[in-house]
Design brief:
- The structure is a homodimer of 196-residue chains.
- Chain A is an all-alpha fold and 196 residues long.
- Chain A has two domains: 37 residues, Homeodomain-like (Arc Repressor Mutant, subunit A, Orthogonal Bundle), CATH 1.10.10.60; 140 residues, Orthogonal Bundle (Tetracycline Repressor, domain 2).
- In chain A, 74% of the residues lie in helices and 0% in strands.
- The first copy, chain A, has nine helices and no strands.
- Chain A is elongated.
- Chain A binds a DNA duplex (16 and 16 nucleotides) through loops.
Chain lengths: 196, 196
DNA sequence: CCTACCGATCGGTAGG
DNA sequence: CCTACCGATCGGTAGG
């Protein structure tokens, strides 16, 4: 019975996290109340606290889940034996797919992380800076190899990552084009913009 | 005296709006309280209401100020006798400069507009959709003229506008490169990505 | 998982 | 422009 209970609690918490991602994405972290969350979960507000510590915990679990996924991916791609420009393309495709498939949590992690409480805020900030630095190094390697234009690598990273987070509006709209078409369009423009 | 009073009230309101832009950018609209605003303005919270109707008014004045500036600009550029690709470049430079020079209000208009109250919310939404449609038409004209790659125009608009709003982080950072260099880097990548 | 409730803070008003 | 204050709502707890 202890076993069953643990499993139930875990999935219950995952369910709450999923609803929280959706709610925070829709209303913003500060604007979404625990009573709002309780309503979509289907319990009274007080009951949520049997599964989570507090509202902040919800946000940091969402943000770090996304951050961890990014860190694992860039680690993997850095180790691959392909050209820097191909690494950039792979990373961009990964971001685009993440935005399309895990839209709510990626969006929340992108736009609401500033409401993280310490020490999570500092930790997230550091991870984010680190990730961008590693991404920029790949671009610099491509410049050295003369397969990428001579641009400021940090600026390139910034605009590419933000360009992709803009898919938000596509996702919310009538989706005139498919996810795959969307991906190819973005790659054409962004990789095309970097390629020498 | 009535004259002087009017002038004073106007500049006082502008001062409040400027502080509000800065505060909403920093903390987010929902998270920034009228008491926070009063503190940076240097009065008691109740005194703010002699200059403004309510908190919502602050947000919609900020958002529509930015929206009006964009509408005027695209109207002007549409009428110019230059190639579609040059129009795109002009528009992008305009957005980049706006982000650098009127950072706080542009940022707030971009990220906090969802907290607008009706009828401003619907109105803003319509203007925004309209602006993007006009921008996309310029890109489509460039595709027809074969000076722009065959991309989905709405997707291109989305990612370009979001790429630029990403300058946020540059602005907040140590500004390793100048505003002009930043602008040239973005143009190289984005216009380079579109050009056939 | 619920009822009942807390102290804090919110946007905003009355009245001067 | 201030003091004094309002009703509403917030995150969270006690106790069962």
């Amino acid at each position: 019975m202890g076993r069953i209970k643990t499993i139930d609690n875990t999935s219950r918490k995952d369910f709450i996290l999923k609803k929280a991602s959706s709610l925070f994405r829709e209303k913003g972290f500060k604007s979404a109340s625990m009573r709002d969350l309780a309503e979509v979960v289907g319990v009274e507000a007080a009951s949520l606290y049997n599964h989570i510590k507090n509202k902040n915990e919800l946000l940091h679990e969402i943000c770090f889940k996304v951050a961890n996924r990014y860190n694992e991916k860039i680690e993997q791609i850095e180790a691959e034996d392909i050209s820097p420009l191909d690494k950039v393309e792979k990373l961009l495709r990964f971001h685009i797919q993440g935005m399309v498939q895990q839209f709510e949590e990626v969006y929340v992690s992108d736009r609401e992380w500033k409401y993280l409480s310490e020490p999570y805020l500092s930790n997230f900030h550091t991870q984010r800076k680190n990730y961008r630095k590693r991404f920029a190094s790949i671009i610099d390697a491509g410049i050295q190899k003369k397969e990428i234009k001579r641009v400021d690598a940090s600026t390139a990273v910034l605009i590419m990552l933000h360009a992709i987070s803009g898919i938000e509006s596509w996702h919310r709209s009538k989706q005139k084009i498919s996810g795959k078409e969307l991906e190819e369009n973005i790659i054409v423009i962004l990789v095309g913009g970097l390629k020498k």
